[in-house]
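Q: Could you write out the predicted structure for this multi-component system? I'm mainly interested in how the pieces pack against one another.
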Amino acid sequence: MKASTFKKISCQLIALTLTAAGLSAESTARIVTVGGAATEIVFALNRGDDVVGVDLSSTYPQAATKLPQVGYVRSISAEGVLALEPTHIVGTSDIGPANALNQIKASGVPTSVIPSPGSPEDLYQAIQVLGEELKQTEAATQLKSKIESQLASIQKLETKPKVVFFMSSPGLGHLNAAGRGTKATAMIELAGGENVIRSHPGYKGISHEALVALQPDIILIGLAEGMPHNETRILDSVLHNAAWQNVPAVREKQVHTVPLGRTLSFGVRVGEAALELNQLFAETVSN
Amino acid sequence: MLRCDNITVKRGNRAVLRQLHFDLQAAELVAVIGPNGSGKSTLLKALTGELALARGTVELNGLSLATQMQRPQDIARWRAVLPQQSELAFNFPVIDVVMMGRSPHLARVEQARNLEICEAALEQVDCLALKDRRYQHLSGGERQRVHLARVLAQLHEGLHSDGPALLFLDEPTANLDLKHQIQILHLARQCADRGAAVFLVLHDLQQARAYADRVLMLKAGRSVAFGKAASVLSAKRIERVFDIPVEWVQHEADALLKIKNPKLNTTNTTT
Amino acid sequence: MQPSPTKRIWQQPGVVLGLIALGLLLAMFVSAALGDKSIPPTTVVHALLNMEAPDDAINGIIVRDIRVPRILTAVLVGATLAIAGAVLQAIFRNPLADPGLIGVSAGGAAGAISFIVFGSWLIPASWPLLHEIGISLFPMAGGIGVTLLVYRLALHEGRIHVTTMLLIGLAMNALVGALIGYAVFFSNDDQLRDYTFWSLGSLARANWNVLSWLAPIIVLLISALLRYRRQLNLLLLGEYEAVHLGLNVEKLRRRLILFTAGGVGLTVALCGMIGFVGLITPHLCRLMLGPDHRWLLPASALMGATTLVIADLLARISIQYSELPVGVLTATVGAPFFLYLIVRAKRRASF
């Protein structure tokens, strides 16, 4: 065997070994994601196969819902997370309780906490940070530009439609309206509309009269994914409410249900969700 | 031992005791009698500090009751109270209930001695056999006797030495059969003979005359008479206060109370 | 009392007490050995003895920094709730008194919530220490306030009116429900979720920092309460009977309420509302040892600690990788037990 051939083969061998080692290192990575947006981004950055546990608020993608759950994002179990023997933990900033987070950090497992996104800018930053930490910078750049181009194609509306966003809880039939500082407001504005409810922060019940007074052009009802909903009944309860027959949205039948997780998570589907709402708004205004 | 000066006690706005004077000496048994609602138990509560005085003063050993009550741990060493009914919602063994009577003395007297005193007290009330029984398994009469043993144990030092002893008994015979009524009155008498001042609320006039040195007769919160048992409990006065015609009949050494006309005139028996 | 010679060995108070203590130690060790992560017992022992665990540093951290502080907190909180229950039952002369039922816990919760809602307005955020103190003091004050109120309202001529006592507890719980309602209305979704989990009761906040201030306070409280064990027996005879036996009832009661309600308020601030430990454990101890507080108080403390350690263990391991709020567990067992006590009391008119 010639020396050069030997050198070539051995180099290839070493490279192969290194790749194998790299691959095996890749396959032993175990990630626990806590918070819907964190889970979405990690999966979108092609690391979904390494995720070994998620929290209850992680409802997308479908694969994530089949993984072991470590509790709800605000009340995770420290030992539950550590028992999954993670090599990396990714959470959104609402991860809690503080004590559990401290205990997890103290265990020495690398822990990344991204801000719980409430705007595209937050999301871009989270994608970039996680791209670097998960060594997926390229995928991160691609993901970011995909969302950017989706958001860029949103049409500016001359007259902003007046929107009311209700949060529906399954079975209760009770509607809470999104007010100031909510992700619903941010999403409505991103899609070119205007949330007419400014009287309160957060999600609160409003009176029947308020809707008559505010005269919204469009009513959105957020339904949580994975919960049983009687969509027709919910829509009918709004459309057939005698007091609201003069409300434009009801008169023109502009009452729509939207999937909550996709619309409000400000995760990787924010572009799609905003585009879809934007189209809905455009149709409403042109009518 | 005990002096009671012009006391008035009110429940709400209504005076239930008015302008009472009386005293109780060491080695003396004073019985309080009167019809239902005349204020006997109220008087006992006022004298033991359970009810506040609207007017007047009560003095114990030359000091006002209010002053003495500020240090209940001191007064409890020589004054004991047996209420009409003691409730105990938890199931203690009998000996433990009696032992509670020793609590003012626990710091000075050793445990074995306390136990002896309690057993002796149980013996006196004929209940030593019940020592390890649970309180709530006892009959009403047995419970009453166990509580009497408790106050006897509490006053043990005063009754067996020269120290002061003051005993309040609120209708101690109420739930008892005849034998145990007599036994308890004997014990009360014995306490007085040993130097204690005994204040006894009683219903039975004949028993009052037989066991008391002096008798305080109440009607509607006022003192009707106070003095030697035989003179206070005259047939005439009983007839007037209790609204029933009676006479005393002498049988050997004992005076027996006889009701003259057992047919009562019901229109007159309001109390 | 001297143990009477007729009593069998396992009926003697000292022996029973020792057995409960042994049970507590066993429960503590089992709890340290079990969890979402299976850790070999030898590693657990190594970690407990503070030796570096040979195979895995994470195991050492899980045992030493997650499980052990939690178990110790369960011991302290369980002991406080149980001994508070036993003491309140003596003060109210009724075996149905429980910190949760008569509203002490609710008062603590009201204190905590008022502080969470209004404290941030009153105290500048730059004084975190004041917040730490406030979040402990307000629940204590709330617990003490409600207990005094219940006592005043339920006391009539030296006797406690039991129905009134329980109804006032009901009213206090309703009032706190309303307070939480206000807090929820003015809070964002995250705070709302936090209230919910907190009110269900959980030991997840336990860590060595918390223990470093909680342990001395609780140990002081419990030893202070144990000093009154003889007086508590007298209190069972009745208010005036206790006075006639030399007890300064008014002073004693004020102190006992201060200590018990303060202790319960403190545990509420830390762990939310964990109900029924104070009801069940003194009752079980009474069955084993009788009503004598000289034995009942220490036994209740030990038994309460054991109960909460076991309950928390179940809360941790019943759902893999998640945990159930421990208050939910204690209520699941405690509420039917409470019903049973009431039904039995109706039949026998005694406890």
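A: Regarding packing and overall arrangement: Residues 28 and 50 of chain A are 8 Å apart (CA to CA).
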